[in-house]
Design goal:
389 residues; 0% strand
Amino acid sequence: MPETFDRKSALAFIVAFGVVSLFADMAYEGMRGITGPYLALLGASGTAVGIIAGTGELFGYLLRLASGRLAEKTHAYWPITLAGYVLQMAAVPAMALSGSWWAAAGFIILERTGKALRNPAANTMMSRAGEQIGQGWAFGLHEALDQTGALIGPLITALVLARHGQYTDAFLWLGLPALVTVLIVVGVSLRYPFAGRAAPKPKAQESATLPRAFWLYAASAGLVAFGFADWPLIAYHFAQVKTVTPVLVPVLYAGAMGATGIGALAFGRLFDRIGFVVLLPAILIAAAAAPLVFLGSTWLAIAGAVCWGVALGVETSALNAGVARLVSDRGRANAFGIFSAVFGIAWFAGSAALGALYDVSLTALVGVSVAAELAALLPLVLVLRAQRA
């Protein structure tokens, strides 16, 4: 049994972890694809949907700060990862038990908590494999497999809704891929136990101190997160104005997840070749999503959902690869936790603000979203200058 990754084992590990994420996303993205209309059915307002989505992200991302530090201090990468997956997957079929919007909100937050618990530890292990095959390729390939499941999950819910018309039935069916996720991740942990052990002795010049470029990078990501509308609010909008039929909402979400996978692969590969500059056009794509989704007709809204999906793919691949490139292994778990906390606080503030603006003015919502995305370009340019220096 090897003690560290080589190119072959690194690629195999990323693919194996990608299969785990495929089934995990099949479960929880299938759930998230219908939470907006489900909350509306249970009586939630647009403001409530925005706050619920934002609170789930905030609590989840803030928890990553603690779980990242815990992983770095204890080196218990696999136990933390496994606990997170069990908690997250349990929350998916439990949604069927909610009889009110506030109970559903509790399960939504619980699902985000499970993901937050395992994320820094899992990302650190994948970044170790990325040292061998390229960080952008590692996170991009993982995300592409991840989003394959994210595409299938909403299609499952669409099929269940078309045949039975009950959201509770859809949540129960999603319990099957949730169970498969837990079984596979246990198997991966037994096959690659060395991924979670303490990193090899650091090079003499490596430091756990987070560089100035990292903080600029986190600021840019925070602005991106603030202006990025969460899918439950988008789905809520579609339900309110009937841009698409209720059954097609999860299908459109599946299409967005497909775009996420393609975006993750393309921008992840480009990140390894040209570095942080690849994020500049990605931010512009994110800026185009809100006006198309909230102000456009059916076809423009569909185009906006594709832009939303591509931008999400960059957020979950190239942005993570950037953290791994800026910070040495010694401080990487902590860096992933801090980065996620900054991202999550901004996501919460943005989700709450955009949800509140939805009930007031769609034009104002779009204006705030686009302004935040464009503002993210400034700290990113400073990161580019620091990297060139």
